[in-house]
Amino acid sequence: MPNKAGSMKKKELAVYKKTLVARRNEIVRKLSEFRNESKEVETDIAQDVADKAESSYTKEFLLSLSDAERDLLFQMDAALRRIDRGEFGNCQMCQKEISKKRLNALPWTPFCIGCQEKAESETT
Ligand SMILES: [Zn+2]
Predict the structure, then answer these.
(1) What's the CA-to-centroid distance between 1 and ligand 1, angstroms?
(2) Cα(119)–Cα(82) distance, rounded to whole angstroms?
(3) pLDDT tens, residue by residue, 4-60
(4) 8 A C-beta contact, residue 107 and residue 19
(5) Do the beta carbons of residue 102 and residue 116 sit within 8 Å?
(6) What's phi and psi for 90, nearest 5 deg?
(7) Are 111 and 92 in contact, with CB atoms under 8 Å apart?
(8) pLDDT at 28
(9) How many CB atoms lie within 10 A of CB 18?
(10) Residue 64: closest CA among 26, 25, 35, 21
(11) Long-range contacts of 115-123 (CB under 8 A, 24+ apart)
């Protein structure tokens, strides 16, 4: 039986999705802590600039994260979108299937091990 995109079982996808959401929540939880800290400053202006505050707080929050956390957050968002589109589990570079072993360790990874190594050797 040929392997193609979308061949992953729904049950497996659900497990990856659960892992991604949980890991993502760990980072996003920092956002609520971050917002609580700035609550005193926030309450006066919150009502007038509610819409703007949302995006500026998000921006501030992203700046408060380390580069690694920010990258991870974006990669997890992208992985969750791939799950919704039924593209999860395929390398974004060569389109081949990413090994289960790799996905289990790094469910947010967009690349297979080969492309990852290639990308790393090119940037260093
Ligand atoms: Zn690849």
Answers:
(1) 21
(2) 21
(3) 545 678 999 999 999 999 999 988 887 667 666 555 444 443 444 445 556 676 777
(4) yes
(5) no
(6) -110, 140
(7) yes
(8) 81
(9) 11
(10) 35
(11) 115/91, 118/93, 119/93
The pLDDT of residue 3 is 47
Q: Spell out the domain ranges in the chain.
A: 10-90
Residue owning tokens 């729904």: 10
- Kindly report the number of other CB atoms within 10 A of residue 47's CB atom: 8
Q: What residues have a C-beta under 5 A from ligand 1, the ion?
A: 91, 93-94, 112, 115
Contacts of 70 (CB under 8 A, 6+ apart): 62
Amino acid at 100: K
The burial of 84, by beta-carbon neighbours within 10 Å (0-12 exposed, 13-18 middle, 19 or more buried), is given as: exposed
Q: Which burial class, exposed, middle or buried, applies to 1 when counting CB atoms under 10 A from its CB (0-12, 13-18, 19+)?
A: exposed
Cα(91) to centroid(ligand 1), Å: 5
